[in-house]
Amino acid sequence: QVPLVESGGGLVQPGGSLRLSCTASGEFTIQTMGWYRQAPGKERELVAAFSGGNTIKYGDSVQGRFTISRDKLRKSVYLQMNSLKTEDTAVYYCKITTPWGSHWGQGTQVTVSL
Question: By CB atoms within 10 Å of each CB, which of 8, 66, 84, 92 scores lowest?
Fold first, then answer.
């Protein structure tokens, strides 16, 4: 298992912004990096991810509001979330894939509420 450390979650009002960070540790090749989320009673869904090369895919509900970025040297991936809505409330998980398989972070809670 590849250790992944996530940070940046918290409580924010609607319309606000948060930035999530995820850093992997160890010596390995990262194939893909991305963010997923799971709200109570719902299935885990894609938020944003780098697939092969520089291709980025966003979930339909976050397109235009969220931006994913990465730092390959630091083995880090980031998620800038703007114009947050109450429906963005969820646990956000970082995921990377390596030649050994998929690896998930522990999750960070994002709550959007007045």
Answer: 8
For residues 50 and 77, is the Cβ–Cβ distance under 8 A? yes
Average pLDDT over all residues of the chain: 95
Fill in the DSSP letter of residue 87: G
Which amino acid is present at 15? G
pLDDT (tens digit, 9 = 90+) per residue, 24-74? 998 888 899 999 999 999 999 999 999 877 899 999 999 999 999 999 899
Q: What are phi and psi of 26, to 5 degrees?
A: 120, 175
Positions of E strands within the chain: 4-7, 10-12, 18-24, 32-38, 45-50, 56-58, 66-71, 76-81, 90-98, 101-104, 108-112
